[in-house]
Amino acid sequence: MQPEIQLANSSTQLESAQNKVLRNTYMMLGLTMIPTVIGAYMGLSLNFAFMAQHPVLSMIGMLAVMFGMFMGISANRNNALGVVLLLGVTFFFGLMLGPILQAALHFRNGAQLIGMAAGGTGAIFFTLATIATVTKKDFSFMGKFLMVGLVMLILASLANAYFQIPAASLAISAIAIMIFAGYLLYDVSQVVRGGETNYVMATLAIYLDIYNIFVNLLNLLMALAGNRD
């Protein structure tokens, strides 16, 4: 009986640790919304003319800055600096919402579109997070497929930043929503099943999923439901 008791205790401790990581991740995720909103508010008043004139160069520069910050967060995932860098990167992402928010607010129903995108993103998050948490199904098999899809999405986005084809932009946004919805399911599942044990890295992954779903959903709504009259 002793080995069975030890196994049960070990299983209970493991589940408790996983729940703690998930709880800390959700708390940190809520905290990251503060610098994001502040950054977005500041981004509304910035001039992004350079990005509009040089879209490919701007996208490459943004990717370089982002991956540099991601490396810094990863290297400091187990100390307070990692949290500071995480909040810093979410502020940066908030700033980068400036161009699309400015474009949305040029529509008569722009505020409504932003609200719909935020509400839709929230609905997607809560639905998929609940599925991953309640079912506790292993979604790790999705990892390789999602990575291939992400690489292809980045390449397609870089190409369309040069060619600027409206129909392609809509297709890219639709595909991006599906890819990052898949990543959301995958990333929450990783925390629930103990595949990710660091709440800073888990928060970063889930934040990026939510951010990209919101941006691409707003892009679709502007194209399909925007009212310029």
Question: Can you describe what's shown?
Answer:
There is one protein chain. The protein has nine helices and no strands. It is globular. α8 (166-192) runs antiparallel to α9. 28% of the residues are buried. The chain has one domain. The chain has helices at 2-43, 49-53, 55-75, 80-95, 98-104, 110-135, 143-163, 166-192, 199-225. The protein is 84% helix and 0% strand. By secondary structure, it is mostly helical.
Please give the structural blueprint:
Blueprint: H1 2-43, H2 49-53, H3 55-75, H4 80-95, H5 98-104, H6 110-135, H7 143-163, H8 166-192, H9 199-225
In short:
This protein has 229 residues and is mainly alpha-helical.
**Rg (C-alpha, Å):** 19 Å
**Total helical elements:** 9
Shape: globular
Give the domain tally.
Answer: 1
What's the order of the H and E elements?
Answer: HHHHHHHHH
Runs with pLDDT <50, length 5+?
A: none
Beta-strand percentage? under 5%
Largest sheet properties:
none
The total beta strand count reads 0
- The helix content, as a percent range, equals over 70%
How far is the first residue's CA from the last residue's CA?
75 Å
Mean pLDDT: 87
Label the structural class.
Answer: mainly alpha
Relevant terms:
84% helix; mainly alpha; single chain; 229 residues; 9 helices
